[in-house]
Structures are given as C-alpha cells and as structure tokens.
Request: fold
Amino acid sequence: MSLLNPEQDVQRLSRGARYRRMAARNPLLIAGGVVLVLIVLLTTFAPWISPADPTALDLTNRLQAPNADNWFGTDVLGRDIFSQVLHGGRLSLIVGFMAVFIAMLIGIPIGLVAGYFGGRVDAIMMRVSDVFLAFPPLLLPIAITAALGAGLLNTMLAIGISWFPWYARIVRASVISVKSELYVTAARAMGVSHTKVMLRHALPNASTPVMVQGSMDFGYTILAAASLSFIGLGARPPAIEWGLMVASSRALFLDYWWTAAFPGLAIFITVLAVNLFGDGLRDALDPKFRGRV
Amino acid sequence: MTEILPVLEVSNLSVTFDTAEGAATAIEDISLTVAPGEVLGLVGESGSGKSLTAAACLGMLPGNARASGSVAMSGEEYMASDKNSLSGFRGRAAMVFQNPMVALHPLMTIGRQMADIIQANSDVNRKDALTRAQTEIENVRLPDAHEQLDKFPHQFSGGQLQRIMIAIALTLDPDLLIADEPTTALDVTVQADILNLIRDLQQRKNLAVLFITHDLGIVSELCDRVVVVRYGQVVETGTVRDVFAEPQSDYTHALLDAVPALGDGGVAANDREEPILEVRGLTKRYGDFEAVRDISFSARRGTCVGLVGESGSGKSTVAMSLLRLNDPVGGAAFFEGDDILAMSERAFHPLRNRIGVVFQNPYSSLNPRMRVRDIISEPLETHTDIRGAELAAEVEKNIKRVGLDVEHLSRFPTDFSGGQRQRIAIARALAPAPDLLILDEPTAALDVSVQAQVLDLLEELQRDLSLTYLFITHDLAVVERLASDVIVMYRGGIMEQGPVADVFANPKTQYTRKLLASVPKLIRQPA
Reply:
C-alpha cells in the first residue's frame, strides 16, 4: 500500500470486500446471522422438509420419547413434535417480525418529528409515549390483548404498541444529534421543506441505531409472543406456535420432558441468534469504525 | 573538545500500521535532531505524519503501529518500538497538545491535577507539590496563581488552559518540549500571546523545543531550523532563513507560495455598483446575551466584503440572520431593496436560491448518505421545475465549474478529501445561480495548499459569474486577498469598517492594531 496521501481520492472498496472485512471483525454477527438464516429457511420450507404432517393424529403412538421415526418424540395426541417445531416457527417469526415492524411504524415518525422540531412538540409527543413505558413490560400487551380479544393479529398489535416508545426515543435522540450537522442547516438555507429535510437528511443519518435496536427487539418480541400464547392470549389451537406448544405440555413435561423441551429450545436458540446478530450489528455499525468498515 | 549531544536525535524512524489490507507505511525513514536550546519546526499538511513522529518519539503510538529506527535523548538510545524503556524518557520530554479543552480532567481542580503529576514524578509531599504547581502557574504568567489552583478547567478560556498545559509540561523539568499544534485551536491574538510565552520560556530555561505546526508564519517567527514533511517523508531540512529564502524542493516552494501573506495589497474598492445587500442595525440576542449588536454594512454588487473576527465575535450569527436561520430582535437587511428580515418565510423562499451559503466544515456540510449528483441537484429541485436530462446537464455544468469530473457525481462525500468536498459544497451553492454567496470560513478546515486552490477557485468564480461575496473569516490575509471592504467585529459589535487598504494600513482602533500585529509573518528574504 502506498504512503498516505490525503488529497488523493480515498480508495473505494468494492461492496463485497467491505462485507468480508465487516465479517472478519464480527464473528458474532456471522454466527448469529447464519443460525438465523437457517431457522428462517427451515421454517419457511417446513411443509417440504418436515417428515410428517404436524396435525396428523396417531393415538397409538402418543407421548413417544425421541426415536428414529420421531426425532423430537410425539405429543399427547401422537403428533410428530419435530414437524410441529418446524411449522410452529413460522407463526413465531412472523409475529415477532410484525410486532417490531408495527413498533417502528408508530415510533419512528413520532421520534423524528419530536427530535426535529423540539420544544413543545417534542415535550408533548415524548410525554405521551412515556405513558406507555410506565407499564410493566408484559402487562400492557396483556391488557391490550384482553381488550381487543385474543388472536395473533391482536398479539402483534399489542406488542407493537407497547414497544413503540423505545423507537421514538432512539430516533429522537439521534435526530437531535444529526440536526446539528451542517448539511441540515445547508438544506434549510436552500429552502428545502421541513418534510424533505426530515426524510432525506435527518432520517437516513439517524437510522443506524434503529436498525440495531430492531434486530435486538426481534428476539424479545418472539419471546413476548410466545409468552402471550403460553398464557392463552396469543395463538389459539389448532394453530401451531412455539409458545402454544410449551403451554399445551404444561401438565405433561414433568413425565414427558420432550413435549416442552424442544419448542422451548427452538425459542431459546432463535432469541439467542437474534441477539448475537443484533450485538454484532451494533459493533459493525459503531461510529468509531465508520468509514473503515 | 567535547561534542554537544543533541537533546533529541531521531534516525531513520519508520512507522507502519497493521491494517486489514496489510501493512500501511505512515512515516518512512524520518531523521531529525534538536540541539539544546534550539527550536525545531516540524511542518507538514494534514496526514503528513508530523504528529505521528512526535507520538513515536514519546512511545505513544497506537496499538497496531510498529516502529523501527532509533530515538535517542542526549545520546541515550531508546528503541521507539519498546514502550517500557520509554517511561524514563517521558519525564525528560514533555508534550503540549492541540486542544487544551479536552486535555484536562473536567471534575478535578487544576491544583490537584498538577500536584498529582508532580508527586507521580518526584518524591515530594502534597504541600510542596502544590507550591511547585503555583510557581509554574506564575511562570506561564497567569495572574493570582494561588487562586487559579482551586479552579476547574471550565472556568478558564482556551488560551489560559493552554498556558496551564504548558505549566504542567514544565513541572517535569523537561529537556525537550514537544508542542503539537498548540495554538491551532486558539484565536490569533491569543496565539500571539502563547507563542511569546513559549519563546520566553525557551530562552529562560534554555529548552529545546520540537514545534509541530502547519503554519509557516509561526515557523518563520519562532523556529531556528525547520523540517518539512510530506506523505511521511522528509522533504527538506535546514535553517528557517535558508529554507524560506531559497527552498530546494518544489513542494516547499509551492507551500510557501500558497501562504496568503498580509501586506500583498488588497482588492481595489469598487464604488460604481449599487449595493445588493444593505444591513442596518442588525441585533440578535440569546436570552440576556447580545450575540450581535447594531451591525450595519453594505455590499456592492460584484464585490467581496470581508467579515473578520475571532471566535465568539458574532460573525457567524450575522450569516445565520441573513439566511433567516435565526430570528434577529432588531434591524433590517435589504436585499435588492427589500427587507428580508421583515418578510414572511413564504415571501423569502424564492430569494433563498439567490443567496447561497458555503460552510466552514466540508466534513459536516454534505449529507454522507447522498450521492454528489443528488447533493447538487437538491437546490435545483427545490427552486426550479427543471428535471431529467436538463437537470443532469445543469448538475454536470456545476461540477465541472468547480474543477471536478462528471464521473465524481455518482460517488458519496466520504470518497473525497476535504478540498474536494469543499468544491462540492461550492457547486451546490452555485447550482441555483445565486447573486450573493455567504462564505462562512470556507477554507478554515483546509490545508494551506488546498486553501490556496479553493481561494483561486472562488476568485475565478466571482469574476466569471459576477458574484457578490460576504466572506466570513478569522484570517486577515485571506480577507486582504479577496475583499475590497472589511468589517472587523469584536464581541458582537463592529470595531472598525472600511476599504481593506485603509483599515489594514491605518487601523483606527487598538483592537484592529493588535489583530493585525498578531498575525504570524512569513519572512522569505535572506537577512
């Protein structure tokens, strides 16, 4: 490599090279990402992969311990737990993803407007969203689902609504710091409208922490959705969902451990992978490494 | 006869960094010596490796750096790469850094910080350490030294803090003082005081000084010998008088030519044209603080008006008011006869493309997530209906006008150097064909050779497009080069205004005189 020359064009790495460097510095990101992709693939293609129909009853074969035919054993109705875990992941992942999406959909605009305009607008918007933070974490989703009625759509809405203030706060904080950058002042001096300044200048430069938070929250929302299903407020039979599977084995798992262990393990591995991925993403996008990654 | 050993002798010092792409050489084969009682200037532009050389001398290289070569103090050899053997070295060489605002612990009093350093380096009790600290504070000419010891860093100004940093460096009784751009963050009048202090201490204590700077004027005034570095290599070395009078390398020559010197003669005043901008009694308050007080001036079409002042003088506040980015409490500003301060935002909007702005810091003034093409077309999209091929042609015209290529348009700002970024910012300001351009310290963040290029460009553009400039700067030499009229601001008010030639030749106020006298003079004639 040549000597440092500040006035020569900064060398541009190809996109591929940049990603390879990012990967080499972040084993966690890669480990979490690979597991996550694997889980998504397995659950997406569950109907083609799973060895049996997850709803097929086989009462002669009920509560079998894991064996060559039924890798994860069978449940009280003789259904194959391996196939159920594969299928159950679909709902868990969709609910988790949609809940984060809804939280962002509500939180980002609030944080953007509050952070950009500041003053009274900021005070009012942030105090309102603070109200949602005053509830214990799982209590608000429970209350909302109780009010709206149990069901998957309501679960997503409930989790999303109780999660949005975090996004509002994160976006607000980073918009406030971006606002002091001269390109925002320059855009205002040119007469670019507030809406355009917010969407074109403020939001893209404030989005990094949101991406990190979103990837980490994906794990928590999966957990929250499973928890709601577990207490009977989320997915309802005959839907297959990890939380629901753990719930229905409540009376059995002391004698038949596999009925609860495998769906539980699936939740555990997914949440762990998501968190590793989120941690890695945060490190990779850390401003200290900006421009070097 | 015994040979006098140099205080610092650096031979064949190289530093490489381990990076993801392999080893990157940052400095290569640098050799220099500092004799007892000598002031050596180490000069270079940003990225030349001058600060890294100092860091290597003190064993303060970052973890992924590897050094080779030798560093010796008074004949005693210290391997630059061996951090442990350098701890003894450090007491004999002390360093003063660029930004004194961040070099002190904000929650500890000055006295406590100084006493801790003194006690860490010698076997004295607390009381003696504090007495010693007070002596050093007196040495750097801060009044009421015993009271200063009980103050916290935030209670001092930048110049006072830099004095304290020098006092701290001197508590170690060093043979060598390494000063890394110690006045770059300070105003020019404060800089003059600090340079005086360093010269005085150096002579009184017969200190050897390694003075790192990008400012050739300072070198000319302060240093005995000079080492010019570029891209991590020594370009030229010799006595300041010889090198400045007859530089041997092309680079040094170009560097010296690029320095705008005071006294080159200003731009002729132009009183034929009508004023395009007329400001009357502009006043802006933040709470009880009067940032700008009763400012009145006018700018004739096609001329450049220099607005000069030190930090906190309110010069940028004036710019913000004229751009309607803050709300002045009083006064009027007539742009082509209409008071822009009295207009509604809606009425002012069409004028926004006639008043352009270029800011100081090109690293912050361009959105890092937008391509250059989008950055330059944004003002056009805001104010005109041209789109598609016509818009693309306009954008290309503007990028070529500032000396960049069309192929640069699809890149992001992070791919460019500071000078190139400032060109992009100028292209953006020019795109809507403004009449008035407000330039807020457009060259302050740039190296001197790049600054010269940007000033050339601005001069050329003004001529070709008959633009009017309001040029805000702290650099009097830059004003002299571009402006026909000058306004000197101090603490929110106008100290003096008039044609550049008159004000600079016969300053009427003491402040202007002091300001002019503080500018380091670059002397290039052999004596």
Notes: Confidence is low (pLDDT under 50) at residues 1-11, 289-293 of chain A. Residues 42 and 86 of chain A are 7 Å apart (CA to CA). The interface with chain B takes residues 1, 3-10, 12, 21, 24, 181-183, 185-193, 196, 200-201, 204-205, 291 of chain A (CB under 8 Å). The radius of gyration of chain A is 23 Å.
